Amino acid sequence: MSLTALIRERRSIRKFNDVPVSQGLVFELLEQAERLYDHAEKVSLRYIYAGTPDSRNRLVDYMMEPMTASRLGKLIPDKMLGIFKKRFVDIPAHVIVIAETAPDRRRSDQNYADVCSIIQNFQLLGWERRLGMLWDTESIIQNEIFFKRIGIGEGERFVGILHIGYFDKTPKGRARTLAEKKWTVFQG
Q1: DSSP character at residue 12
Q2: Ranges for the Nitroreductase domain (predicted)?
Q3: Is residue 67 part of a domain?
Q4: Checking phi first, is residue 109 left (phi over 0); if not, alpha (psi -120 to 50) or beta?
């Protein structure tokens, strides 16, 4: 498959089947994704892998904790919370991606952008192997409670959680805004 076709056909997957995802495969694809990203400066990042039933349960509890502690979250029926939890616990693998920050903003932003590029490479490499992913950055998990629980330390920045699994059906593509509609010519 050509790179253009691969990029065009890749989709975010929200519904996974129950086929296990090997930790070794995830590690191999992350290593390949890092090697494909060629940049003069070293990219500083780390991953937290949750692929066992216990680790997935704990991760989902950490994800839900800020939501259930909120005033609005306390109104959500237990049955609904159970459905939410099961949906995420049943996903075969999760990878939390954390970027190192730097004393100056430019270097911090550059490292964050580099890490995002690696994640994109990882998603494309996974797609080649029929491995689907969803890059999750929902605002509900963007909070200090969750960050503390997963062990984000001083000098680190949350990039997202990749929910990973095999899938049975490829979602339809959605309409994209053409680049020319976002195009402005600078008049200086």
Answers
A1: B
A2: 7-166
A3: yes
A4: alpha
What token pair was written down for 74? 């306390």
Round to whole Å and give the CA distance between 98 and 150: 10
What domain range is 91 assigned to?
23-167
Q: Under a CB-based contact definition with an 8 Å cutoff, are residues 28 and 121 in contact?
A: no
Neighbours of 138 (CB within 10 A): 10
pLDDT of residue 40: 64
- The number of distinct structural domains making up the chain is 1
Q: Looking at the domain assignment, is residue 13 inside a domain?
A: no
What is the DSSP code string of 55-82? HHHHHHHHHHHHHHHSTTGGGS-HHHHH
Q: What is the CATH number of the domain that holds 133?
A: 3.40.109.10
- Burial of 176 per CB tally in 10 Å (0-12, 13-18, 19+): exposed
Query: Residue 56 corresponds to which amino acid?
Result: R
| 104-142 per-position pLDDT tens digit | 999 999 999 999 999 999 999 999 999 999 999 988 788
List 98's β-bridge partners, or say none: 46, 158
Q: Is residue 60 part of a domain?
A: yes
Amino acid at 150: I
pLDDT at 32 over 90: yes
